[in-house]
Amino acid sequence: MISATTLIIANGFISRLTYKSKTLERIIEGRPEVLIHNGKLFTEVMKQEQLTHHELNAALRAAGCSCIEEVHYAFIENTGQITVHRKNTSGA
């Protein structure tokens, strides 16, 4: 009971701190990192985030991309989820 109460209080305290300070929020929660931009893969970000090519390829396939060259940009969110935006292939 004491452990649960301590965790709840600590969580509330950190939530208030990160709400008031965007710098502290970025330090504690992190921020999205660019993995791919206009078909260029940033391997240093993959290493930093400990992301394998298999995981990246699975995210690309889920977004309907068969290769990195089809990607306009891809981010790894601070939650670990990969967000992929395809290049606009229409002639407009």
Q: Can you offer a commentary on this structure?
A:
With 92 residues, this protein is of the alpha+beta class. The protein has two domains: 1-30; 31-92, CRO Repressor (2-Layer Sandwich), CATH 3.30.240.20. The chain has helices spanning 2-20, 22-29, 43-48, 53-62, and strands at residues 33-37, 40-41, 71-76, 82-86. Strands 2-1-3-4 form a four-stranded antiparallel β-sheet. The mean pLDDT is 89.
Compact description:
The protein is built from 4 helices and 4 strands. A hairpin with a 5-residue loop joins strand 3 and strand 4.
The percent range for helix content is 40-55%
Q: Mind telling me the CATH superfamily name of the largest domain?
A: bsu07140 like domains
Report the end-to-end length measured between terminal Cα atoms: 61 Å
Strand order of the largest sheet: 2-1-3-4
The CATH class of the largest domain, by name, is: Alpha Beta
Please provide the count of β strands.
4
User: What's the architecture of the largest domain in CATH terms?
Assistant: 2-Layer Sandwich
Task: Compute the number of helices.
Answer: 4
Largest sheet: 4 strands, antiparallel
Features of the shown structure:
single chain, 92 residues, alpha+beta, CRO Repressor, 2 domains, 4-stranded antiparallel sheet, 4 helices, 20% strand
Topology, element by element:
Layout: H1 2-20, H2 22-29, E1 33-37, E2 40-41, H3 43-48, H4 53-62, E3 71-76, E4 82-86
Antiparallel strand pairs: 1-2, 1-3, 3-4
